[in-house]
Design goal:
The protein is α+β, with helices and mostly antiparallel strands. Helix content is about 15%, strand content about 35%. The strands form four sheets. Strands 3, 4, 5, 6, 7, 8, 9, 10, 11, 12 and 13 form an eleven-stranded antiparallel sheet that branches. Strands 1-23-16-20-19 form a five-stranded antiparallel sheet, covered by helices on one side.
Length: about 450
């Protein structure tokens, strides 16, 4: 015999319980939605649950990548954030030289220091923000007075050379010891010529002054390539021309003529790469891709990378796309010239020109050096974010013409690195793609 038992609860208890259950459910649902709405649709390296819960998610990293070395082109060189001075001699890349031009501005109009003045000394000072290379020997710095004006509104490129006056106004040897400035002693003959203009029309205003004194060319002795490069900040407040002078029977005085953001600054780069592995790789690209590529800043070398068959994907949304690029470590070379902190990629359009990636323009810092495990060993790797680029290729927004990889920022760094190509046996480039099916 079945006995039916009915439980009775007070009406107010039932209502309160229902409200609690409903509140708990709604609260939990809102918390779930909030937490998931804050997460970007990306995955860590091993966070791929390719089971029944994620049947629409696909991870692919078996793309064929064809990579070759190219010689870089000249770049715009005027009024950059940094100027470079020095030279490097790397057996992998050849010799690289960096120099610059700049002019100066008076602190005031109608400058008059007095008459009968005698120069005691004069110096160029430049602020140093970064050094690259071991600097195992002193720098031989040569300075010339310009014989051609620098025009602030003009566009100049890294191969532009300006006429100078002879002889030089400085030829000095300076050991670099990590200081925040470099000081270059100029000839007293040059300094006396400036002091002699006191009270004249040549110091009436900056237009007159820059017509009289057009600026300087600062370089290193190209006959003997060194092993160090300085990044200089010409507009940070430390860079200037300083005159020390006195009148007969008077104490020594000084006058600073600064370099500021109204002054024109032009970087100049040149290189000698004949016979170097980087030059040979650039001259003889391999149709199926090379096993290594060479990239170096200051308009030297870059890599071209083609990701085959990316444009054959259909009906997918890209959750995450990264190009993994491995430095090929050379203990001696990479000790002298340390690996770049960052590299970056640009896409190639139909005219073979570079176009900045949307991933870069959106503020994503591409190509920062990281580490990963290969064969149980921790190795460095650059991970370049290509999520929006991959989606655009899949959507047929532009043609898959490939990418170019550069040291970042290529126009003001002399850093360099050899990278594993798509065919490298141990450290090949990898394009890692995570997508979700859209239908």
């Amino acid at each position: 015999m079945l006995i039916s038992t009915t439980l009775f609860y007070p009406t107010n208890f039932i209502n309160i319980t229902k409200l609690k259950l409903i509140s708990f459910f709604i609260g939990g649902l809102l918390a779930f939605l909030f937490l998931n709405s804050c997460k970007e649709p990306s995955f860590s390296d091993d966070d791929l649950l390719l089971n029944g819960d994620n049947v629409n998610i696909q991870f692919t990293d078996n793309f064929m990548l064809k990579a070759n070395t190219e010689e870089d082109t000249i770049l715009q060189a005027n009024n950059l954030t940094k100027s470079l001075l020095g030279s490097t001699n790397d057996s992998r890349f050849g010799k690289l030289y960096a120099s610059f031009y700049n002019n100066f501005r008076l602190l005031s109009n109608n400058v008059n220091w007095g008459s009968g003045l005698i120069i005691d000394s004069c110096y160029l000072t430049y602020g140093v923000t970064k050094s690259y290379g071991p600097f195992s020997s002193p720098m031989n710095i040569v300075v010339y007075e310009l014989n051609e004006p620098l025009v602030n509104t003009a566009s100049y490129f890294t191969n532009r050379a300006f006429a100078v006056k002879l002889p030089e106004i400085a030829n000095v040897t300076i050991p670099y010891n990590g200081s925040s400035t470099i000081n270059i002693k100029l000839s007293n003959t040059f300094g006396q010529n400036i002091i002699n203009q006191s009270g004249s029309a040549n110091l009436a205003n900056n237009d007159a002054f820059q017509s009289f004194f057009k600026g300087v060319y600062v370089t290193t002795n190209s006959a003997a390539a060194g092993d160090g490069m300085l990044n200089l900040d010409l507009i940070g407040g430390a860079s200037k021309l300083t005159l020390y002078y006195h009148a007969a029977g008077d104490t020594v005085k000084k006058y600073d003529i600064p370099v500021n953001d109204l002054c024109t600054r032009v970087n100049h780069y040149h290189r000698t790469t004949t016979g170097s592995p980087a030059k040979l790789a650039a001259d003889m690209p391999i149709a199926t891709g090379a096993d290594k590529v060479f990239i170096e800043g200051l308009t030297s070398f870059r890599a071209k990378v083609m990701i085959e068959n990316l444009d054959t994907f259909k009906n997918v949304a890209v959750n995450k796309a990264e190009l993994w690029v491995f430095p090929l470590i050379n203990s001696s070379a990479d000790t002298a010239y340390k690996l770049p902190a960052q590299i970056y990629a640009s896409r190639i359009n139909d005219a073979a020109n570079d176009i900045q990636l949307l991933d870069f323009l959106s503020g994503t810092m591409v190509g920062t050096r990281d580490t990963t495990q290969v064969g149980g060993v921790t190795v460095p790797v650059y991970k370049i974010n290509l999520t929006r680029y991959a989606q655009s290729i899949i959507n047929k927004e532009f043609t898959n013409n490939g990418l170019r990889i550069y040291v970042f920022p290529t126009n003001i760094t002399s850093e360099r690195v050899v990278l594993g190509g798509g065919n490298h046996v141990t450290y090949p480039m990898k394009f890692r793609l995570i997508t979700t099916k859209t239908n």
